[in-house]
Amino acid sequence: MNKWVAFLINDTRYCCNIQQIKEVIPYSACNPFPGSNEYAEGILNIRGEIITIISGEKLLCDKNITQQNNILIIENDRQERIGLTVDKVDRIVEFDPAEIDTGVDTTSPNTTWVIGTINDANDLTVVVDFADLAAQQSSEVE
Q1: Which residues pair with 6 in a beta bridge?
Q2: Burial of 131 from C-beta contacts in 10 A (0-12 / 13-18 / 19+)
Q3: CA gap 77, 20 in Å, rounded
Q4: 83, β-bridge pairs
Q5: What is the pTM of this model?
Q6: Where is the CheW-like domain (predicted)?
Q7: What CA–CA distance (Å, rounded) separates 110 from 43?
Q8: DSSP line for 101-132
Q9: Dihedral sign computed on CA atoms, order 82, 40, 89, 95
Q10: Sign of CA dihedral 134, 97, 14, 110
């Protein structure tokens, strides 16, 4: 059984592996920067480290209709970090990755990070993998 962080964006529940989450911080307005991509809200200085903040709504839903209350700081294996805005961190869930239903269409633009779904206590949860998100954003900023 693995642990996953469940969070809400536009009333849809998502989760990602807890090992990808470095920390959760309260939402604060970001500083926009020139040349950023369509998903970037801006940058934040978090304890002396400049981190690009990505809109979870734009990345996963293509809509911006709810208030963002938290930022998930995601870290990959290369210690590259990125922030992702979310409406709310919901809870920690546990399930085996073998239980993920991978029969999901991942060819549309907002499903790049989706690996499948899981039925958690009769709630459909979309499972996402952000392992390459920080690396992709870092390469776009350079």
Answers
A1: 15, 91
A2: middle
A3: 9
A4: 53, 73
A5: 0.87
A6: 1-139
A7: 22
A8: B------SGGGTTEEEEEEETTEEEEEE--TT
A9: negative
A10: positive
Residue 89's identity, in one-letter code, is: V
Q: How many residues does the chain have?
A: 142
List, for residues 38-96, the tens digit of each pLDDT value.
Answer: 888 999 999 999 999 999 988 888 666 677 899 999 998 888 899 999 999 999 999 99
Give strand ranges (E) for 10-130.
12-17, 21-26, 40-46, 49-55, 70-75, 81-86, 88-95, 114-120, 123-128
Name the nearest CA neighbour of 137 among 81, 85, 78, 62.
81
Q: Which residue has the tokens 């239980």?
A: 99
C-alpha pair distances (Å), 73 with each of 28, 65, 97, 100: 13, 22, 22, 24
Residue 68 CA to residue 131 CA, distance in Å, equals 22
Task: Report how far apart, in Å, the C-alpha atoms of 96 and of each of 19, 34, 124, 128, 138 are.
Answer: 14, 41, 15, 14, 31
